[in-house]
Amino acid sequence: MKVILYDLDRTYDELIETRCDRALAADGKYTPCQGCFGCWTKHPAECKMKDTLQQVCRVIGQANELVIVTKNLYGGYSADIKNVLDRSIGTSTPFSTYRGRQMHHTLRYGRHDLWKVIVYGEITEAEKETFRLLAQRNAVNDGFARSEVLFLEDLRALEGAL
To answer: Which of 13, 28, 101, 107 is deepest in the core (most CB within 10 A)?
Structure first.
């Protein structure tokens, strides 16, 4: 299943929705993670908050390909994208294992294929390098076999990048 998580305005909804099995709009119309860890322990993969992200752990956890479209924020995800990723911690369990000679949380949904990040907005070379490293580390931590980062100078190129 291909999931696209994006922080673009509503004019991009149709384009995004035709390119994936499931689209998640990071529109800020949800509560930030409260850090209760209920999605880890009490109600596995389900957030206690009753909003549009209540099932986000299951959606992202079942994605074989996760595509994140985000505005650059100092070499990292936009605040809205980061909020969604924070709310998806339940894709793993509180138990630990070794992957690539490093300790990570055990995956609740198993391995995935591609963690792809499409970045738009002004960005320096140093921020690009930071983003590449961030995407690579996120992919390893969430059980994705590979990561890819694309930088768009113009959002008109988004259709070909998806």
So the answer is: 107
Superfamily of 2-161 according to CATH = Flavodoxin domain (3.40.50.360)
User: What string of DSSP letters covers 108-133?
Assistant: SS--EEEEEEEEES---HHHHHHHHH
Sign of the C-alpha dihedral computed for residues 127, 77, 19 and 90 taken in this order: positive
Q: Find where tokens 């908050």 sit.
A: 49
DSSP SS3 for 139:
helix
pLDDT tens, residue by residue, 20-63? 999 999 998 998 999 999 988 888 999 999 999 999 999 999 99
- Determine the Cα–Cα distance for residues 112 and 90; give it in Å rounded to an integer: 15
| Pairing mode of beta strands 112-120, 144-152 | parallel
Q: How far is CA 1 from the centre of its chain?
A: 14
Instruction: Kindly report the pTM of this predicted structure.
Output: 0.94
